[in-house]
Amino acid sequence: MRILGIETSCDETAVCVIEAEGELGDFQYKVLGNALISQAKLHEQYGGVFPNLAKREHEKNLVPLLTKALMDSGLAKDGNSLADITHILEREKELQVLLSEFLKTHGKPEVDAIAVTHGPGLEPALWVGINFAKALAHAWQVPIVPVNHMEGHVILSALTGGKDEIFNSQFAICNKPKFPMLSLLISGGHTELVLSKEFMRYELIGQTRDDAVGEAFDKVARLMGLPYPGGPEIDRLATEARGERFNLSHGLTTAQERLNLFHVVLPRPMIDSDNYDFSFAGLKTAVRKVVEANQPLTDEKKMEIALEFENACAEVLVAKTMRAIEEFGVETLVVGGGVSANMFIRESLVQAIKDYGYSTKLFIPPRELATDNALMIALAGYFRACKKEFAEPDSIRANGNLKLA
Ligand code: KG4
Ligand code: ZN
């Protein structure tokens, strides 16, 4: 089955075409074409994603990305489609013009279904992808499968975690996750622990009570005058600090080590609470106080704050995840979402599983696929399409708060 995946939930516009076959145990796929534009630099001036700017950029980017993905996949067809899509893209005038032009010069490619993110995310941004999918489905007469963005992160990580060669022209060998499977989903909008007793079934066991961990990275970076998105900036500063300044080659710190080594000590919110919930707003407030007390902020202080902040996040995430592994006898741990690109969090999870002596398999995607992309939507869409979960185009709605469970 060939699936065209479309992702526009936040500030990445992405289109991907895959060919996939089989079920979980014998599943294989290859990426035929994959194209992505990150808008992060454009949103930098707002210190976060500005929804209407994201919407406009998605409108501008989708047709060029589709063209590239189809060209790369060898599926681009000459010809034209006479379908009128203007009514479907009434609210996306720029996209309407670009897609109408595209359809005049391109025939229907051999794709079997279109998978599109319908939530969670920014609704104005989600709508662009959905309406684009509807217009293509109308022009090409192919079905649409709506995909939950978070399920995309889970399935991508579960199948490709630990693999290097994702964009092979050959069919890729996938992981075979075992159940119970636990997903630690850490992104700009989410911090969740989700338990799956079987594939594609989800039970939310814990989540943040305030800010998502990625949001905390972004806000803390902003407090220190670092550009958006803050996660990679803090990752870079903390890595530098850990290596050069403190020579901390080993994993997590103890409270005593912190007091001895660091000039900045931050709380580990909810680390001992008897549940799987998280809280990152207090951590951000604690950083604000440190920043205010240390004006003007030196580069050295920024490094110390980045290091201690990253330590605090990693320790809380690891502690709760290990507790859930123990309680639920987790066989596979999957980590997904933009924050799973963080080197220290990745290493801390690997180390903790070793230290606790768990036999749990850990699947984390390659760093470039930790953040949003359309491969994850195409993969999740494939499995939903296998279950014939196609939707009437008119029934598909953007749902900013769409839940996995
Ligand atoms: O999954 P994602 O691309 O978009 C959402 O669905 O939110 O995640 C984006 C988040 C941002 O908050 C960004 O700062 C964070 O992931 N992030 C990182 C790193 N790379 C991206 N956080 C920590 N360390 C990183 N290396
Ligand atoms: Zn995401």
How would you explain this protein's 3D organization?
The structure is a single chain. The chain is of the alpha/beta class and 405 residues long. The protein has two domains: 2-161 and 369-395, Nucleotidyltransferase, domain 5 (2-Layer Sandwich), CATH 3.30.420.40; 181-364, Nucleotidyltransferase, domain 5, CATH 3.30.420.40. The chain contains 13 helices and eleven strands. The strands form two sheets. A six-stranded mixed beta sheet has the order 5-4-1-2-3-6, sandwiched between helices. A five-stranded mixed beta sheet has the order 9-8-7-10-11, with helices on both faces. β4, α4 and β5 form a beta-alpha-beta unit. α5 (149-160) packs across α13, α6 (213-223) packs parallel to α9 (281-293) and α6 runs antiparallel to α10. The longest helix is centred in the last third of the chain and has 30 residues, at 299-328. The model has no long low-confidence stretch (mean pLDDT 93). The protein binds 5'-O-[(R)-(carboxyoxy)(hydroxy)phosphoryl]adenosine (KG4) and zinc ion.
Jot down its keywords.
globular, alpha/beta, 13 helices, Nucleotidyltransferase, domain 5, single chain, binds 5'-O-[(R)-(carboxyoxy)(hydroxy)phosphoryl]adenosine, five-stranded mixed sheet, binds zinc ion, 405 residues
Number of strands: 11
- Structural domain tally: 2
Task: Please estimate the helix content.
Answer: 40-55%
Q: Identify every distinct bound molecule in the structure, by name, code or SMILES.
A: 5'-O-[(R)-(carboxyoxy)(hydroxy)phosphoryl]adenosine, zinc ion
Mean pLDDT: 93
Strand content: 15-25%
- Indicate the structural class: alpha/beta
> How many angstroms does the end-to-end distance come to?
27 Å
Radius of gyration: 22 Å
Placed side by side, the strands forming the largest sheet appear as 5-4-1-2-3-6
Write the CATH homologous superfamily of the largest domain. Answer: ATPase, nucleotide binding domain
Weakly predicted, low-confidence segments: none
State the CATH class of the largest domain.
Answer: Alpha Beta
How many separate helices? 13
The name CATH uses for the topology of the largest domain is: Nucleotidyltransferase, domain 5
Query: What does the main sheet amount to?
Result: 6 strands, mixed
Q: Rough shape?
A: globular
